[in-house]
């Protein structure tokens, strides 16, 4: 069993008026547009969940929560993340730290950095200082979507010598 596993996840959603923009479980109230999605469209939590699965080579969230299923309509992404965390723990690993990058032209998100990092940390059982949150614009190249990229490092569960 490897002492560490690294995972990478990505997610993007189209932006449209009249939808909420939720990033890492935090609603961005001043966003003029939100994510079009089958679930709640939280691209941060989707990308984190995919990064967790990728670290233990379990595929991606679409296998566990198909976007063709009515059951998953408007699904709270925290449910998706909790399931992925359980799958990772069952394989003997826990998150050690996470780094995420949100690409979004508007609005500027700097004032929400602490809140997003705290929320993601809480959901993953990490300290605030173990969640890096960066923001980038697309420089106008992709103004109609939000994109998130995430790396995660897993360590073995303490006391698990399997
Ligand atoms: O994309 P660019 O490098 O021009 O972004 C400049 C800075 O603006 C970023 O380093 C980040 O601090 C901030 N930013 C932000 N919210 C965004 C996009 C960028 O706070 N949605
Ligand atoms: Mg998504």
Automatic annotation (TrEMBL):
Keyword annotations of the record: Isoprene biosynthesis, Lyase, Metal-binding
GO molecular function list: 2-C-methyl-D-erythritol 2,4-cyclodiphosphate synthase activity; metal ion binding
Top EC class, one word: lyase
Essential cofactor(s): a divalent metal cation
The reaction(s) this protein catalyses: 4-CDP-2-C-methyl-D-erythritol 2-phosphate = 2-C-methyl-D-erythritol 2,4-cyclic diphosphate + CMP
Gene Ontology biological process terms, A to Z: isopentenyl diphosphate biosynthetic process, methylerythritol 4-phosphate pathway; terpenoid biosynthetic process
Site for Transition state stabilizer, residues: 38, 137
InterPro entries, sorted: MECDP_synthase, MECDP_synthase_CS, MECDP_synthase_sf
Manner of cofactor binding, per the entry note: Binds 1 divalent metal cation per subunit.
PROSITE patterns: ISPF
Domain 2-C-methyl-D-erythritol 2,4-cyclodiphosphate synthase: 5-152
Enzyme Commission no: 4.6.1.12
Residues given in the record as 4-CDP-2-C-methyl-D-erythritol 2-phosphate binding sites: 11-13, 38-39, 60-62
Role, per record: Involved in the biosynthesis of isopentenyl diphosphate (IPP) and dimethylallyl diphosphate (DMAPP), two major building blocks of isoprenoid compounds. Catalyzes the conversion of 4-diphosphocytidyl-2-C-methyl-D-erythritol 2-phosphate (CDP-ME2P) to 2-C-methyl-D-erythritol 2,4-cyclodiphosphate (ME-CPP) with a corresponding release of cytidine 5-monophosphate (CMP).
Protein name, per record: 2-C-methyl-D-erythritol 2,4-cyclodiphosphate synthase
Organism: Deinococcus maricopensis (strain DSM 21211 / LMG 22137 / NRRL B-23946 / LB-34)
The organism's taxonomic lineage, starting at the top: Bacteria, Thermotogati, Deinococcota, Deinococci, Deinococcales
Gene name linked to the record: ispF
